[in-house]
Amino acid sequence: MSPLKKEKLNKIRKELDKLDNSLIRIIKKRTDLVKKVLALKERKNQIVDQKRINLILSNIKKKSLKNNIDPKITNKIWKNMIYAYIDFERRNFSKKK
């Protein structure tokens, strides 16, 4: 790789690092909201709402297409995030009281 390309690569990676830091703050906010949702659930079987999951994934696909983002990427990201939070809720359900 030429020195110029390497310099450009390093600049882009620094931008990605800044973006990752922003994503961490957003994930923290989302986690706080999920904790509030969990506090309202009375039974463990209320954790998974398949209709809501389907709606979220459908909306993400529409928004991805509208913004010229490969919907396969966003679908994988959101599915992983949804199931990570489902796991979080299951692990924290019994601890909530």
Describe this structure in words.
This protein has 97 residues and is an all-alpha fold. It has a single domain, classed as Chorismate mutase (Chorismate Mutase Domain, subunit A). The chain contains 3 helices and no strands. The termini are far apart. The mean pLDDT is 95.
What would you say about this model in short?
Helices cover 80% and strands 0% of the residues.
Which descriptors apply to this entry?
3 helices, 97 residues, elongated, Chorismate Mutase Domain, subunit A, 0% strand, mainly alpha, single chain, 80% helix
Poorly predicted ranges: none
CATH-scheme architecture: Up-down Bundle
Radius of gyration from the CA trace? 18 Å
Shape: elongated
How much of the sequence lies in strands comes to under 5%
- Along the chain, the helix and strand elements come as HHH
Q: Summarize the main sheet.
A: none
Number of helices: 3
Helical residues, percent? over 70%
By CATH reckoning, the class would read Mainly Alpha
The CATH topology comes to Chorismate Mutase Domain, subunit A
Average residue-wise pLDDT: 95
